[in-house]
Design goal:
Rossmann fold; alpha/beta; single chain; 7 strands; 14 helices; Single alpha-helices involved in coiled-coils or other helix-helix interfaces; 3 domains
Amino acid sequence: MGLVADITDLGTRIALGERRALARGITLIESARADHRLQAARLLEGLPKDREALRIGLSGTPGVGKSTFIESFGMMLADRGLRIAVLAVDPSSARSGGSILGDKTRMDRLSRHKNAFIRPSPSQTHLGGVARRTREAVALCEAAGFDIVLIETVGVGQSETVVAQMADLFLLLLAPAGGDELQGVKRGIMEMADLILVNKADGDLKAAATRTCADYAGALRLLRKRPQDPDGFPKAMMVSAVETTGLETAWETMQTLVDWRRDAGHWVRRRIEQSQYWFAEDVRAGLLSQLDAPRARNEMLRLGAQVADGDLAPSIAADQMLRWLSAVKR
């Protein structure tokens, strides 16, 4: 009874917008402990379902200025009275599992703004540029009454497109560069992007930024038109996070796209598709977690040793492992 009462109280305080309660709730859902997962499920089930924030995913190559952009963009929105939550995912070490979690220190002004909440989380080697429970953290931020939830991914790559499955808008932030830069960005992430923002369009880099923006605008015109986009989207634009130029225009462009998608019915349809995607992903994750059970690990080690000795082909060993798991569940 005490457990339910504590979770109920935590959910109530999150719904009231209490920052400490929100931070505690995110810590709870990030935990892998079995008892914490049960509590997290109860917490999520009891949250208000009638609150909806604009979810913005942001990806970009390391050094492109993601943190500087988020701080400048976030300050602009927060100063207008909008409440913005930033979920910044830092890469975890594959060896130690540790993470620097330095994003909050790089957004000093925004972290102290009364309308902003910044939460760095380790990716824990989870592919897709986001942490395993980022989607649930987004739900908590929405329940807490935030108007905008900005999800910053680890970096840019083919797997980074997972963030597009939890965002309403997907921004790709790039730096001015030479002609080879276009070749370095994966086609998959370009096809997912709703808006490409060429950052650092100031000073000596402004001319290079203009050329880079033109290159990407041309590349976007060659992509197949998406049904969820009005004419002219996706598009490339120039911004300067340092000089805060272009941010106002970028925000107006985002709002134009959001309004069009709402009116055309794509907003609701996209949210439904995302829910179905994450349902399937959670089922897959649950099945994979069964391999972490002691008996399953022992069976994996036994079969793995036979593969190493050449007694079993990998495909045959995998088939035997799957049959073993099926037999155990029966």
